[in-house]
Design goal:
GO molecular function, one term (chains A, B): DNA-binding transcription factor activity
Helix content of chain A: 40-55%
CATH class of the largest domain in chain A: Alpha Beta
Keywords (chains A, B): DNA-binding, Transcription, Transcription regulation
CATH topology of the largest domain in chain A: Rossmann fold
CATH architecture of the largest domain in chain A: 3-Layer(aba) Sandwich
Number of helices of chain A: 14
Number of domains of chain A: 3
Strand content of chain A: 5-15%
Largest interface: A-B, 48 and 48 residues
CATH superfamily of the largest domain in chain A: Response regulator
Shape of chain A: elongated
Radius of gyration of chain A: 27 Å
Largest sheet of chain A: 6 strands, parallel
Oligomer: homodimer
Strand order of the largest sheet of chain A: 2-1-3-4-5-12
Number of strands of chain A: 13
Protein name (chains A, B): DNA-binding transcriptional regulator, LacI/PurR family
Distance between the termini of chain A: 87 Å
Chain lengths: 367, 367
DNA sequence: TGAAAGGACCGTAACGGTTCAGAACCAATA
DNA sequence: TATTGGTTCTGAACCGTTACGGTCCTTTCA
């Protein structure tokens, strides 16, 4: 007792073994393999550990030796805190957390500030694998993750061919939504979308920018729209598409305003997310436009708030997406060639979509 | 080149150094201290690294050596995924994530299944500190955290004296809310509260259980109520207090039903969270009781949904709480004796509270 | 021309564990 | 008596890195 009064340096496995006069192996076994030593010795080890204030094997040293960190990393392109503000992201996180919990694995949120090119946080993350959620394909953090020699699952990305992937058919889902609107008679539309690249561009989007978009999800949703409306005889290059960097209702409102200012005759506002759509609806209300009588508004995602508002949208299984990503990553069983999972979506016809005002004669073109 | 054709074992700092004919230190410096070697050698190191597929210094080995994990751990008493379902928890997480981001630190969600006593996940977490959020004071995971030799901040816990603490004055806030109701004339009340201990007890709560509650927050809120109503001449032991293990609206509804079945004459339903209160309101509606004309309902937290419903409640700064916890933990500056931070709350008088029906004559007792 | 300064690089010693192939011992079996 | 088998514990080899305290060589300046 006296000699351990002033614990200059904290106790280690070695110092504990020395104190007890046994080998380090034995102390290690006392913690990790109780069946490898006699119960009384084990008790003596644990008692002495308590007396010396030894907190048990150091997790980092253990990780180094076992090559297991016991955690998976999550990379987001947004500020970390954004993940807790966006309903879809929250759902994804919940699903991912579920999968981690099942496996007894920790979930490390990696701070990847999109403003800076600093990828040190990715290099510093002690994890057994990465989940990358909705990151632009030219993000340096993504590149840094792909260089790490650990399994990776990407979400809402193009199929990279080298790592597992989870996603939905954004293009097809949006195509179906567009067909619904076309069937109703809409031909003169406006679009509000989320950011298409890492640079801020709050305004109209050129066709070039649409094609070159680094956010796979947004690019595909727009392309689904373009395809459907082009087929219906609409000149896509004339359709006003407005982009917003920040993803919140205010952006949806201001984006809708910008579209309506450019062309007050649009009969439908198609938004690439429910959050934007909810914002667009407030803007419509502000202008005295009734939804859907005067104008149709649609979203994408199927979040709670949209459901309550009766939003016409595409519901995607965000929770399942997170869970699938986690399962894919943690499933050590089949580590065959990269797997690609597409989850099903559902077109929700709500009460925010209807035939265009005075557009009944166009119903001929319906499906 | 030829000898590195078949990379049996992945490249390390040492193998890279050997290949280059320089010391390990130099390779390390190439990554960590570019100013310590000539630019051309650094380039040569990095080029060779790329050629050999060396992904840069191993984060775990680095953590072992530097004694820094670059992450803080978060311990929750609930299933991990619950954190993404409860509005208050989400707010807390957002604040904590904000603080971590500022410091460039990762945030590790530690899987601590409350059902099992298995604390291995706590032992396995490679972190520089812990934040413990709303955990019962007898939780073995909490004990395991406190044994780890890293700084810790507890939230919504009693002041342990040994670690930093962040919280609010739950007791005082609930006392003030109670005074408001007493001023309105309420004397015959019912209470719906969240779980008081780790065991499931969906039903009425004895005074003993209230006092022995292991959830500090719930205990204090109840004791604030008890104090105010006792002062107003109400026999607290006769007040129906119903507990619910699960925290969601359904629990609020069934809890309210249980109270109303026991005493249909109650004029106010006091809930210890907004989520429970929202559930209680749906149950009131189901019974044809108008709020607040027929019955008063109050909550606690100040979540978005409550605000929209005009709920009378106590607003607490959940985001600030998370941020404060993170700041306290990451502030290496003043590591003086344990600090205790109490954040301010605000009593929100909404439209779900009013004088009891036929209780106008009791207004004499108002403030 | 000699002393001091500075840049570039190196060797050694941790950091704190886990793992695996035995050694030592003892009891039971053939 | 020799063999077998089981239990309990040990020794030494890693895991991949960074901190520390040098050495060596080239410049600079009085």
């Amino acid at each position: 007792m006296a000699r351990s009064m002033h614990v200059r340096r904290p106790a280690t496995l070695a110092s504990l073994a020395a104190e007890l006069g046994v080998s380090r192996t034995t102390v290690s076994n006392a913690y990790n393999r109780p069946d490898q030593l006699s119960p009384e010795l084990r008790r003596r080890v644990l008692d002495t550990a308590r007396r010396l204030g030894y907190p048990g094997p150091d997790p980092v040293a253990r990780s180094l030796r076992t090559r297991k960190a016991g955690a998976v990393g999550l990379l987001l392109t947004e500020n970390l805190s954004y993940a807790f503000r966006d309903p879809a992201a929250i759902g994804f996180l919940e699903g991912l957390a579920l999968a981690c919990e099942d496996a007894g694995t920790g979930l490390l949120l990696v701070p990847a500030n999109p403003e800076r090119e600093d990828v040190a946080s990715v290099h510093r993350a002690g994890v057994d694998g990465f989940v990358v959620y909705s990151v632009p394909d030219d993000d340096p953090h993504l590149a840094a993750v792909l260089e790490r020699p650990v399994p990776t699952v990407v979400c809402d990305q193009p199929d990279l061919g080298t790592v597992d992937r989870v996603g939905i058919d954004d293009r097809g889902a949006m195509y179906d939504l567009a067909r619904h609107l076309i069937g109703l008679g809409h031909r003169r539309i406006g679009v509000v979308c989320m950011r298409l690249a890492r640079d801020r561009n709050d305004g109209f989007v050129t066709p070039d920018r649409q094609h070159a978009a680094h956010f796979h999800v947004q690019r595909n949703r727009l392309s689904g729209l373009a395809e459907a409306f082009s087929e219906a005889g609409v000149d896509w290059s004339q359709v006003p598409v407005v982009e917003r960097f920040d993803h919140n209702m205010a952006s949806g409102a201001s984006g809708a305003a910008q579209v309506l200012d450019r062309d007050p005759q649009v009969t439908a506002l198609i938004c690439t997310s429910d959050v934007l759509a909810l914002g667009a609806m407030t803007e419509a209300g502000r202008r005295g436009l009734r939804v859907p009588h005067d104008i149709t508004v649609t979203g994408f995602d199927g979040i709670r708030g949209g459901e309550e508002a009766g939003l016409t949208t595409v519901r995607q299984p965000v929770l399942e997406k997170g869970r699938a990503a986690g399962k894919l990553l943690l499933d050590t069983n089949e580590r065959s060639r990269p797997r690609s999972v597409n989850l099903a979506t559902e077109l929700i016809i709500g009460k925010t979509s209807g035939p265009p005002r005075g557009g009944a004669e166009e119903r001929w073109f319906g499906p």
